[in-house]
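A student in our group prepared the protein record below, which I am reviewing. This is what I was given:
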Amino acid sequence: MKGLRAFVVCLVIACAAVASPAAAVTPGWTALPVPAAAAPVTVSDIAARGPGEAWATGYERVADGMRPMLYHWDGTAWSRDTSFPGAAEPGRLGAVQFVGEETWIFRVRAGAGEILRRSAQGWSAVPLPQTLWTYQDFTAVPGAAWVVGEDATGLKVLHYDGSGWTAQSTPDGVLYLLGITARTATDTWAWADTTTGTTVLRWNGTQWRDADVPLPPNSNVHTILLDPSGRATISGSRYTDGVPRTYLMTFSGHTWHTTYPNLGDTQTGAMVRGPDGALWLPVRSDRAFQSKYARLSGPRTTFSYGPERTNAIDVKPRALTRAGASLLSFGTVEIYGSKPNLMSERLGGRP
């Protein structure tokens, strides 16, 4: 009888651990030292080609405004890269992506946009054909790149085909493109504000069309993940009586399936697919001295914490990427008495 009772107690404890959204079920995050920048800093993006190469972008505050900030991971340590042209000039770095054997980074320099390209021969730059008021997003794949934003005449979708730029038109009623991502040069997705609400658009190599995605009512889109297999994942917030709730939509290639993971009103823009096949994203931590990450696998949402940081009052992973069999995050940490500076953490990989 005592053995049965012990078994039942253990079973209840195990079930409670699975059901609890605060359970740290995936230990193993470690802190990676990052050379300090001029605080306070802003992190834009991170991308990895594998366990031995990653780049993180952003900007730091200096006396004359913003200065671009670029960090390189070589599989062992983070280092700051100042070898790109104009590294000491005012500006900022945005999205970073790998295109073939090259690294492409969107940059704003003295108000003008350009694409920094790093190859085996070194750095080069592809200037935009015009200066925009705002630069909302950038994406690139072999054979194509897009920059979306606005100028005095309204919405601009600028397309680069490897040799030159053209301006593309969007369907009637599109007011503003909020983000863009591409699987190939002929399969690109964007999310937009329109006269009828948030809409997902799709480029088929010839024109932009409404993708007919059945988004939840009164919702927005934070990000779209496109897998080479054809799978697509959309995340965002749905507003009910003014209260936001995170939703997740997955596309199998035929139908869309919508779920509401246990994330409250979390911003999911940094969500990535991890090496384990699950979705991962940084979330707001309930511990001032530790970061927090969510893992979404089917209907199950679990959480893990980063390493404890002495005297930290705010730890914020801002960007996340898969690096081979590990995950790399890049963000900021505020230590008591100082302004936020850089931090990085890794799950998996060599200790």
